[in-house]
Amino acid sequence: MPAVKPRKRVALVIETSLAYGRAVLRGISKYLVAHQPWSMYLDLHELMAQPPRWLENAEIDGVISRSTTPELAASLLRRRIPTIDMTDFRLHDGLPHVYTDHRAVGKLAAEHLQERGFRQFAYCGFSDHAWSSERREGFANAITGHGAFHVYESRWQTSSSQTWAQQQQEIRGWLDSLPKPIGIMAANDMRGHHVLDACRQLELAVPESVAVIGVDNDEVLCELCDPPLSSVVPNPERIGYEAAAILDRMMAGESWPTETLYIPPMGIVTRQSTDVLATDDPIVASSLKIIREGACHQLTVDEILARVNTSRSVLERRFRKHLGRSPQEEIRQVQLKRVKQLLEETELPLSRIAELSGFQHAEYLSVVFKREVGMTPGSYRKSANLR
């Protein structure tokens, strides 16, 4: 029998505390399923944690790192250990890099907000990280000539001279000064949470007055936001897969690549924070906010009329001008969106779903759903479970 080749020893210095890092690890795992497996050293840590000290002297064949320091980079280069650097916070000369295309991320966010009719834009990011600056540049370049552009940036971590409360107060002041309606890109989902929290404290209508989109699509964080946060979806699994493939070739003796590999984002998951058509009509904007808050509580058009103090004919005319549909149709769309969410994410019976989405009877819900969606609620639930 032929001798079994010893496995390559690879250190993975990748954060396991965030969804992004875990997705990178899944991509590496998918590559190894179809190729020669490695003996892997995985150090459990948070993003931006210092790399383990043992790495400086470890007998290893390769490294994939998202926590590379200048000292570690110099050590790996000196020892000629094949290394893929995925650290977004800085560049290290001499190491091959595989990164998210951050400028493409910004461009995608800008196009998303423009499609919703926004003509005024802002970016909320971090002043001390290259990835945030690149996302801002991609966003700004995509809206050049399409409207005003406003920026707020602060350091990633609050310093001893500035508490978190003070920074959040600055964000509130910045938001309060912006023209409305406005579309805002946040550098990542956590920054999006900061912006949405400030909007809530200022009682700014989201998404009617301020629409917010984040980056990374951390589903738990996005769904915990109020309202749930839309987010650009990067492709960390592919980043992990490509990094593993390049490292494998380097460990086999191929020359080190000199050009950075940029991986484009996959798309956008739209949630309530941008699920709107921007309008500067105050009656339509106020009505949309009322509908989004009350559609699933058996809201009627008469109740909207009483709160915005206008006539039915004026409201109908303005809705059709700006949205292409009536107030009642908008109520129905919000209700059906809630029904779809409950069918996809819960096992609740149809009677309970009808109650939670503003329908008086499950039978009527079934009739409306079949007419508007083209299938029964039961068929929709089955198809969602097969995705």
Q: What distinguishing features does this structure have?
A:
15 helices; 387 residues; Arc Repressor Mutant, subunit A; four-stranded parallel beta sheet; alpha/beta; Rossmann fold
Q: What is the CATH T-level topology of the largest domain?
A: Rossmann fold
State the name of the first-level CATH class of the largest domain. Answer: Alpha Beta
Strand order of the largest sheet: 7-6-8-9-10-12
Overall radius of gyration: 25 Å
Percent range of helical residues: 40-55%
Number of helices, counting only DSSP H or I runs of 4 residues or more: 15
- The low-confidence runs, each spanning 5 or more residues with pLDDT under 50, are none
Q: What structural category arises from helix and sheet content? A: alpha/beta
Please count the beta strands (DSSP E, at least 2 residues each). Answer: 12
**Mind telling me the CATH superfamily name of the largest domain?**
Response regulator
Succession of helices and strands: EHEEHEEHEHEHEHEHEHEEHHHHHHH
Residues in β-strands, percent: 5-15%
Shape: globular
- The name of the CATH architecture of the largest domain is 3-Layer(aba) Sandwich
> Could you report the average pLDDT, rounded to the nearest whole number?
88
Instruction: State the distance separating the first and last CA atoms.
Output: 44 Å
Largest sheet: 6 strands, mixed
What oligomeric assembly is this protein in?
Answer: single chain
Description of the molecule:
There is one protein chain. With 387 residues, the protein is of the alpha/beta class. The chain folds into three domains: 120 residues, Rossmann fold; 139 residues, Rossmann fold (3-Layer(aba) Sandwich); 104 residues, Orthogonal Bundle (Arc Repressor Mutant, subunit A), CATH 1.10.10. 47% of the residues lie in helices and 13% in strands. Strands 7-6-8-9-10-12 form a six-stranded mixed sheet, sandwiched between helices. It has a four-stranded parallel sheet with strand order 2-1-3-4, with helices on one face. A two-stranded parallel sheet has the order 5-11. The longest helix is centred in the C-terminal third of the chain and has 19 residues. The protein is globular. It starts with 8 loop residues before the first strand and ends with a helix. The model has no long low-confidence stretch (mean pLDDT 88).
